[in-house]
């Protein structure tokens, strides 16, 4: 067996942290899309996500990801550095059961990959998978035989073929006269601009090929739209050919014709007479179009296959229109998937029941011929208002199961009989299997794309606990991937009305108009019924607003105003005029909001998209409720924590005071460290700085007890040792909730000579440091036992006099125990920093200490930190 030839490689290493999984997915997605493997990128992303999760979460090591591009496809290798950790076993096999938490990544490898395996070495374990790239023939797809003139395809008398050349970066390099005539853009207006700016393209995941991918294929044919100079979308049929110049630079040559001239470029056969005009009277059936269709290569995707089918069905019966419907998964409804000669934008994805009524004409399971629809109005709802009068419909069946319905219609009555029905049924029987295979292939691709979409969505939603950001993510994930516009309603409680919280439209210029429209419409009812339900209020309001706008324009009859095109109401009606659905956001058995999705211009949602939206809504609801709970908890926590902080510090005559406090942990304002400065009596002030064992709410509770007890006892006239001994007893009385406490407590008396007298007790706390004017630093107290450990304490206080210019620095161990690897700042490091603070104010001293602590280590602090600086200023000389 020939070994694949490696043509490119990309590698990256991801640290053993949770966010690495999302980063690895992005790395693989960007790499494969850059290589042009858009068909298999979703499978690769899902498999990489599982394998990197196994490495960084379960094995707990860094993950090395290697992407290899070969002539046959791609190979991705994920290696961890824990070779002893074996794969999950079940019944002797290394494939785990689907219900088990572990090993599901290997199940996915077995289901999605062309091949996969596991390799061990002495230092690492490597899991790899291979995905083969679908074959894409280079050059012309098919070549037809030489035909007589009367059998050539019908085209307009003057066919314009736009020739556009696009460079490898997507910029327009050439633009011929026919392109200018068809689309209204002069060459000098578009040359050098991205072709994507002009091309309208569907954004449904898993269906069709995106324009960027199509431009990089060696050969491609298909339909899309070009935005003309007047902002309308011109439907075109395009043929792309990838070429390179003499220097080897690649580019894409695009040939485009109007959609009804597609026979000029399409490699299909359409029967006609020698007359080049399009009149129906001159068409004569030649060979069976389905003969050519069956014998020629099928289009690359389901949409192309269905479109070709309806066009040939129309030509076979010399009809004016044709349409094809596919059955939904439960086979209770039919969904319009392709049409010709009908307003396809209005019909696409519209659904009708399989059993529409009684009798053979009411069931799509049987052939039916309607000679005149005006006699039986509403017999074929899809044709209402189209001018079609006669119609023949036949079922598509595979192994006796209804898979779809094919219909052909004409503008004149009595055109079809049972003979035409038999011909159409014969053709439908021959094409039904090919259609069903293509439908299943598309469905599988859509489901795989949906899985990748949900993986990314879940990761994004789990990455934030902010309510507004969660709302924005919900909308941005649905627009334009699932819908043209989105609105999120939130419900505060069961008695509150739904509130419009976020609105997004794929066209940013229409967001304000859409928001105004929805603001005038009563919100949908917050019912918990699962699944999507149709909501007609926005469409009805948009159409009513458009009608009022049109009447106003007629009354005004101001040509200068009408020349500017439709007003805001008409634009809003076009943007919101399609199907609108509402999905409940249910979390913890309560409706917390509604996710509203809409389509423009009478478009409908396909069933697979609604199912994907329902999956997304469940994840979004939980994320939104989590953000609500987090916001409520944070608000309560911060309110309680603020109550533990001391009020504004008092002014102490003759003494500068500065405090800096940093609580560890996100959302914490108070932790286990605390400080206080308060007046005891005239001329006397108490100060304290302490550290409760641990962090978080439990430590904060002891913080509140200590701070309030210190104030109460000091103001009752107790000295420092008596205050701490009684506080020690109060802490021990807490029993199991008690915590160890280190505390530096002192009393301060400013003196008439400009100095300050302090009496301090240091109970197990880092010693206070005294900085003299000459730059010397020395401890200002001796260590004594900490609080909360034993009943009987023999504490004593020490007297310190601060002369003018002296500084007393008090800190918690979050300062001295600041670490960088094995290094620690320590008491000596703190003293060294303090020696550089001579002559600084108390505020400058505290700021310099904090800056030194922060610069000592790159990682955020893991412990609470408090800094209290007291300084006696020098007297001013006048």
UniProtKB/TrEMBL annotation:
<dbReference type="InterPro" id="IPR036457">
    <property type="entry name" value="PPM-type-like_dom_sf"/>
</dbReference>
<dbReference type="Pfam" id="PF07228">
    <property type="entry name" value="SpoIIE"/>
</dbReference>
<dbReference type="InterPro" id="IPR001932">
    <property type="entry name" value="PPM-type_phosphatase-like_dom"/>
</dbReference>
<dbReference type="InterPro" id="IPR052016">
    <property type="entry name" value="Bact_Sigma-Reg"/>
</dbReference>
<dbReference type="InterPro" id="IPR013767">
    <property type="entry name" value="PAS_fold"/>
</dbReference>
<dbReference type="InterPro" id="IPR003594">
    <property type="entry name" value="HATPase_dom"/>
</dbReference>
<keyword id="KW-0378">Hydrolase</keyword>
<dbReference type="InterPro" id="IPR035965">
    <property type="entry name" value="PAS-like_dom_sf"/>
</dbReference>
<dbReference type="InterPro" id="IPR029016">
    <property type="entry name" value="GAF-like_dom_sf"/>
</dbReference>
<protein>
    <submittedName>
        <fullName>SpoIIE family protein phosphatase</fullName>
    </submittedName>
</protein>
<dbReference type="InterPro" id="IPR000014">
    <property type="entry name" value="PAS"/>
</dbReference>
<feature type="domain" description="PAS">
    <location>
        <begin position="163"/>
        <end position="193"/>
    </location>
</feature>
<dbReference type="Pfam" id="PF13581">
    <property type="entry name" value="HATPase_c_2"/>
</dbReference>
<dbReference type="InterPro" id="IPR003018">
    <property type="entry name" value="GAF"/>
</dbReference>
<dbReference type="Pfam" id="PF01590">
    <property type="entry name" value="GAF"/>
</dbReference>
<dbReference type="Pfam" id="PF13185">
    <property type="entry name" value="GAF_2"/>
</dbReference>
<dbReference type="Pfam" id="PF00989">
    <property type="entry name" value="PAS"/>
</dbReference>
<dbReference type="InterPro" id="IPR036890">
    <property type="entry name" value="HATPase_C_sf"/>
</dbReference>
């Amino acid at each position: 067996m020939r070994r694949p030839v490696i043509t490119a490689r990309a590698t990256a290493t991801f640290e053993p942290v949770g966010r690495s999984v999302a980063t690895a997915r992005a790395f693989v997605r960007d790499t494969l899309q850059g290589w042009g493997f858009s068909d298999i990128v979703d499978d690769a992303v899902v498999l990489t996500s599982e394998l990197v999760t196994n490495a960084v979460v379960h094995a707990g090591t860094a993950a090395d990801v290697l992407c290899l591009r070969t002539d046959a496809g791609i190979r991705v290798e994920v290696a961890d550095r824990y070779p002893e950790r074996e794969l999950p076993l079940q019944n002797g096999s290394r494939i785990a059961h689907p219900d088990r938490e572990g090993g599901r990544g290997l199940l996915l490898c077995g289901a999605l990959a062309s091949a996969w395996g596991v390799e061990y070495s002495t230092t690492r374990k490597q899991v790899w998978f291979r995905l083969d790239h679908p074959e894409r023939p280079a050059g012309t797809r098919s070549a037809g035989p030489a035909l007589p003139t009367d059998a050539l395809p019908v085209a307009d008398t003057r066919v314009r073929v736009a020739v556009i050349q696009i460079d490898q970066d997507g910029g327009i390099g050439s633009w011929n006269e026919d392109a200018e005539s068809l689309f209204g853009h002069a060459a000098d207006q578009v040359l050098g601009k991205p072709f994507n700016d002009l091309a309208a393209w569907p954004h449904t995941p898993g269906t069709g090929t995106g324009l960027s991918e199509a431009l990089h294929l060696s050969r491609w044919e298909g339909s899309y739209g070009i935005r003309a100079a007047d902002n309308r979308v011109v439907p075109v049929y395009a043929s792309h050919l990838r070429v390179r110049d003499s220097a080897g630079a690649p580019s894409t040559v695009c040939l485009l014709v109007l959609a009804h001239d597609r026979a000029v470029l399409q490699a299909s056969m359409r029967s006609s007479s020698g007359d080049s005009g399009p009149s129906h009277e001159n068409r004569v059936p030649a060979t069976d179009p389905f003969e050519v269709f069956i014998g020629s290569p099928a289009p690359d995707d389901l949409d192309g296959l269905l479109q070709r089918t309806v066009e040939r069905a129309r030509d076979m019966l010399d009809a004016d229109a044709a349409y094809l419907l596919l059955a939904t998964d439960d086979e209770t409804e039919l969904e319009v998937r392709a049409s010709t000669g009908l307003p396809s934008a209005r019909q696409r994805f519209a659904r009708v029941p399989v059993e529409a009524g009684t009798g053979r004409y009411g069931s799509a399971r049987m052939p039916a011929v309607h000679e005149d629809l005006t006699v039986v109005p509403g017999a074929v709802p899809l044709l209402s208002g189209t001018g079609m009068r006669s119609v023949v419909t036949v079922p598509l069946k595979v192994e006796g199961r209804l898979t779809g319905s094919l219909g052909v219609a004409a503008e004149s009555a009595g055109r079809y009989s049972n003979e035409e029905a038999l011909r159409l049924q014969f053709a439908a029987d021959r094409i039904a299997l090919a259609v069903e295979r293509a439908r299943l292939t598309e469905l599988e691709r859509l489901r795989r794309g949906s899985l990748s979409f949900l993986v990314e969505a879940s990761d994004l939603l789990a990455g934030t606990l902010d309510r507004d950001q969660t709302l924005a993510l919900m909308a941005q994930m649905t627009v334009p991937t699932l819908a043209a516009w989105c609105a999120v309603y939130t419900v505060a409680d069961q008695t509150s009305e739904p509130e419009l919280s976020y609105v997004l439209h794929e066209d940013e210029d229409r967001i304000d108009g859409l928001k105004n429209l929805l603001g005038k419409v009563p919100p949908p009812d917050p019912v918990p019924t699962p699944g999507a339900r149709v909501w007609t209020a926005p469409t009805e309001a948009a159409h009513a607003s458009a009608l009022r706008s049109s009447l106003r324009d007629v009354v005004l009859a101001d040509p200068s105003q009408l020349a500017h095109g439709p007003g805001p109401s008409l634009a809003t009606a076009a943007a919101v005029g399609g199907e609108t659905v509402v999905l409940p956001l249910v979390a913890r058995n309560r409706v917390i909001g509604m996710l509203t999705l809409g389509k423009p211009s009478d478009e409908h949602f396909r069933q697979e998209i609604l199912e994907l939206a329902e999956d997304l809504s469940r994840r979004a609801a939980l994320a939104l409720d989590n953000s609500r709970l987090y916001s409520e908890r944070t608000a309560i926590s911060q309110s309680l924590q603020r109550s533990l902080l001391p009020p504004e510090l008092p002014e102490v005559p003759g003494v500068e005071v500065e405090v800096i406090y940093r609580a560890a942990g996100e959302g914490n304002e108070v932790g286990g460290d605390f400080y206080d400065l308060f007046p005891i009596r005239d001329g006397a002030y108490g100060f304290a700085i302490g550290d409760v064992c641990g962090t978080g709410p439990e430590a904060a509770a002891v913080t509140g007890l200590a701070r309030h007890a210190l104030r109460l006892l000091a103001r009752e006239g107790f000295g420092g040792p008596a205050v701490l001994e009684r506080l020690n007893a109060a802490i021990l009385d807490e029993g199991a909730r008690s915590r160890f406490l280190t505390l530096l407590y002192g009393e301060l008396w400013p003196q008439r000579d400009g100095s300050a007298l302090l009496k301090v007790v240091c109970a197990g706390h880092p010693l206070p440091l005294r900085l003299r004017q000459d730059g010397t630093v020395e401890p200002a107290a001796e260590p004594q036992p900490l609080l909360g450990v034993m009943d009987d304490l023999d504490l004593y206080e020490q007297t310190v006099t601060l002369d003018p210019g002296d500084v007393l620095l008090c800190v918690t161990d979050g300062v001295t125990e600041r670490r960088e690897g094995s290094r620690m700042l320590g008491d000596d490091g703190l003293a060294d920093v303090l020696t550089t603070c001579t002559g600084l104010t108390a505020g400058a001293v505290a700021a310099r200490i904090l800056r030194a602590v922060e610069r000592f280590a790159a990682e955020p602090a893991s412990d609470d930190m408090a800094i209290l600086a007291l300084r006696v200023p020098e007297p001013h000389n006048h």
